[in-house]
Specification:
This protein has 19 helices and 13 strands. The protein is α+β, with helices and mostly antiparallel strands. It is globular and about 65 Å long.
């Protein structure tokens, strides 16, 4: 076989027995005992957290960076949401099990939520994959469990109350992974958490007030679709629908394009849509072709993502009451890549899409990617999805200890399922074992890292106070 033939030949897959996979997982304990996962102290060479955040800011829209800092300043929890790069550097300093899976890369509890599956049922899962990359499974679990410790402090829960909550996250992950390890491959692939089923479990133990709030949130999620976005984000201008101007959070592309003539601008966007269309399966391409491009705008989204370029695109179908809102979100290299190596995908948008498809039980039918040259002449990667597709997130600030404990179980199950789809569930389950050693270790880590998060949050407060960085609050 020639060198070229070897390079293009299908990759050989080794199929190990369950016993061999179990041995592999147990052997990993010799290199990294489960108790070692609970150790945390900052490395002597740990970088200044503001330097790390400022380094990220260099590739972002300058006028939006102060909004990012303003959102991170709201609380230690919102800071944590925007500090995935800091934690990636920190966990990279710890011994790794070597048991790899597809990582979310930013698996904090607010990046879980409900969304509509293609069959239109609401399901629960991870819903942010900007940092996804293959890596050691425990990196995601550490970020998730620590987020519950940070949120528990935010809610005013004592250490005595927080400890069983963080332990529950890790235990749910461990026990769920054992369940997935015993499942047939196809059954595991199709496993998913239906929101209505999970809500029924929740309401069985919730107070009347908690049930009412949960039902309101569910109805809000169901109604959050392109029609709602159409009514909220557009207006009629000269007889044609246009996206509203609400700077700096929403700025129509026509106001950012400078001297570029309108027809030329919009034709360039139509060409981009055709390019994106090629990344969809044929049936979904045909569906997209039934919609025509109308308008686009830059929109500020999230916390950690603020400053990266995010566009919303309005399209119309059979008539003026048949909208499709797409979101094109800039995809930069994952914050994990400096420690785990570059993605196998040269397009960062494809990295996000492939990771999402691998980890979610069902993904947005409009999920695709493009590479394009922006208005500033710089080439960038984007992934595209529907703007609102019945997406809903838990309202953390309203949770009691019992509700947060229930949510901990659901998130632990969900992360384990996502990891089991892409990694070796048998080996990971064997490493985790049947005792509570892993649970205790991760709970211990979460509190130590919540302390670090508070120190980093204070560093941002000081940087803003001294004028080192600028923050714009209230946006």
């Amino acid at each position: 076989m020639s060198i070229q033939e070897k390079a293009t030949a299908p990759r050989k897959i080794d199929h190990l027995t369950v016993e061999e996979r179990t041995t592999h997982g147990k052997d990993a304990r010799g290199d990294v005992p489960r108790s070692a996962l609970g150790d945390w102290s900052p490395a002597a060479s740990r970088r200044d957290p503001i330097d790390v955040l400022e380094e990220q800011a260099e590739s972002r829209v300058p006028e939006l960076v102060p909004i990012r800092y303003g959102r991170m300043l709201v609380s230690p929890f919102t800071f944590y949401r925007g500090a995935a790069a800091l934690m990636a550097a920190d966990v990279a300093e710890s011994p790794a099990t070597g048991l790899r899976t597809q990582l979310c890369g930013d698996a904090h509890l607010s990046n879980f939520g409900g969304f509509a599956a293609p069959d239109r049922r609401l399901i629960f899962g991870l819903n942010d994959f900007d940092e996804t990359l293959p890596g050691p499974f425990e990196w995601d679990v550490k970020r998730l469990v620590a987020s519950f410790a940070v949120a528990g402090r935010e809610l005013g829960f004592s250490a005595k109350v927080r400890e069983p909550i963080t332990t529950t996250v890790a235990r749910s992950y461990r026990e769920s992974m054992r369940t997935f390890a015993g499942m047939r491959n196809m059954d595991l692939w199709y496993a998913r958490a239906d929101v209505e089923t999970e809500l029924a479990k929740f309401t069985a133990q919730a107070t009347a007030k908690e049930r009412k709030r949960a039902e309101r949130n569910l109805e809000k999620a169901r109604s959050k679709d392109s029609l709602k976005a159409f009514g909220k984000l557009t207006q009629v201008v000269d007889g044609e629908r246009r996206i509203v101007n609400d700077p700096p959070l929403i700025v129509p592309i026509r106001d950012l394009a400078g001297d570029m003539p309108g027809p030329e601008l919009h034709e360039s966007l139509r060409l981009l849509i055709r390019s994106y269309r090629r990344t969809l399966s044929r049936d979904r391409r045909l569906l997209l072709e039934r919609f025509r491009y109308v308008d686009a705008a830059r929109k500020v989204v999230g916390v950690g993502s603020v400053g990266t370029r995010a566009w919303i695109v309005l399209m119309l179908g059979r008539d003026g009451d048949d909208p499709l809102f797409l979101q094109a979100k800039e995809a930069q290299p994952s914050v994990l890549e400096p420690y785990l190596g570059k993605s196998q995908f040269t397009n960062a948008g494809q990295r996000v899409v492939e990771g999402q498809r691998l980890m979610q039980a069902a993904s947005d039918i409009m999920l695709g990617w493009i590479r394009t040259v922006g208005l500033d002449g710089v080439e960038r990667d984007f992934y595209i999805r529907q703007l609102w597709d019945a997406k809903g997130s838990a309202i953390i600030e309203a949770m009691s200890p019992s509700v947060l404990t229930w949510y901990a179980k659901v998130c632990g199950w969900t992360l384990a399922k996502a990891h089991a789809r892409s990694g070796d569930a048998v080996a990971i389950a064997a490493y985790l074992g049947g005792s509570s050693a892993f649970d205790r270790a991760l709970s211990s880590f979460s509190e130590a890292y919540a302390d670090q998060n508070e120190r980093d949050y204070s560093a941002l407060q000081e940087a803003v106070g001294s004028g080192r960085v600028t923050a714009e609050t209230g946006l």
